[in-house]
Amino acid sequence: MISEHLSEGSSYLHDFDPRFKIIVALIYSVTVALLTSFPLLLLSLFYSFILVFWARLPSRTVFKRLLVVNGFVIFLWFILPFSYDGKELISLGPLVATDVGVYQVLKITIKSNAIIMCLMALLSTSPTFMLVHALHHLKVPSKLVHLFFFTYRYIHVIYT
């Protein structure tokens, strides 16, 4: 069975209406993705930490999930610093890491971690079935809702 142990907690976030959590998660994710100011990015990361704390999510689980995301982000750290023009920070033979490249990849790292932690705090505190039902009530096209539900169901079938 697919484990939904995070949805079985007893925090304030667990009691919120899933429709509200979906809307807040969507607005927050889009807002963070569009931020360009570094102080605001750090504030969004702090806010995400507060949400995770407020949801009472086990830090070990949060850390493991962030490791998966950052496993993909690490590849950006190997490419982007060498892809921008700017002030030289490190030179590795013909490759030159620039301040602009490091700044860009740092922003991407902060954004991705802030968004993922927010999604964990808001969406994983509700059972999947309730989230799908909430999507239906938010007038998401029924074909998309059914696709999401059947995908979840068949992942569950294959998993067991």
Please characterize this protein's 3D structure.
By secondary structure, the chain is mostly helical. The chain has two domains: 11-126, no CATH class; 127-160. The chain has helices spanning 12-15, 18-34, 38-55, 59-79, 99-123, 128-137, 142-159, and strands at residues 88-92, 95-98. The chain has a two-stranded antiparallel sheet with strand order 1-2. Strand 1 (88-92) and strand 2 (95-98) form a beta hairpin. The chain is elongated. The termini are close together.
Per DSSP, what share of the residues sits in E-state strands of 2 or more residues? 5-15%
Q: Please report the distance between the alpha carbons of the first and last residues.
A: 6 Å
Structure annotation, total helices: 7
**What is the 3D form?**
elongated
Oligomer classification: single chain
Mean pLDDT: 89
H/E topology pattern: HHHHEEHHH
Number of beta strands:
2
Give the count of structural domains. 2
Structural class: mainly alpha
**Proportion of helical residues:** over 70%
Gyration radius (Cα, Å) is 19 Å
Q: Can you tell me the residue ranges where pLDDT is under 50 for at least 5 consecutive residues? A: none
Biggest sheet features? 2 strands, antiparallel
Order the strands across the largest sheet as they lie in space: 1-2
